[in-house]
C-alpha cells in the first residue's frame, strides 16, 4: 500500500505502519475495500455518526466463508501488541441482530468502534520511542483523522489498512 493517499476531503493521509507479517503479500485471501462515492477510504467518525454509506454497503462480506464469528485486531504503532485481552483486539459475530449476515457497512462500523475503543483506552498514555507521531491524544491522532481503507485477513485475524491525516 502507498505511504500516502489522497482522501475525499482533499487532504493527504499517511499510512499507519504495520508489522511486516501484516503486509498484503501475506494475506490469506482478497481484502475488503471501503470506498465512498468511488473515493478510497472512509473516515471513522463519519461511519460512527452514520453520515456516509460505503459503496456496495449491503454486500455480505463474510457469508461465503460460513463463519459465525471472526477476529479483528489493530496493529497500531507504539501500543501493546495484539493479545486476546487488550483493547486493540475483538472477536465479533459475522451476523447482525443474530441472524442477518454482516454487511460491508456493518464491518466498517465494527472497525470504527474498535479504533475508538483503543483511542479511549490509550489517549494521552505514553507510546514506544519512535512512535510519538502515532500517539493517540487530543493534539496528535484522534479518530476524526483516521480513515479505514481496507481490511486484510492473515491466517486467523482481520487487520484494517488505516490512514491518518495530519501526520508526518
What does this structure look like?
The chain is an alpha+beta fold and 168 residues long. The protein has helices at 44-48, 104-122; strands at residues 4-6, 12-15, 29-33, 35-36, 39-40, 42-43, 69-73, 89-93, 95-96, 100-101, 146-154, 157-165. The strands form 4 sheets. Strands 1, 2, 3, 6, 11 and 12 form a 6-stranded antiparallel β-sheet that branches. A two-stranded antiparallel sheet has the order 4-5. A hairpin with a 3-residue loop joins β9 and β10 (100-101). The longest helix is centred in the last third of the chain and has 19 residues, at 104-122.
List keywords for this structure.
168 residues, alpha+beta, two-stranded antiparallel ribbon, 12 strands, globular
What's the total count of β strands? 12
Tell me the span between the first and last alpha carbons: 17 Å
| Mean pLDDT over all positions | 86
- Counting copies of identical and different chains, the oligomeric state is single chain
Summarize the structure.
The protein has helices at 44-48, 104-122; strands at 4-6, 12-15, 29-33, 35-36, 39-40, 42-43, 69-73, 89-93, 95-96, 100-101, 146-154, 157-165. It has 168 residues and is an alpha+beta fold.
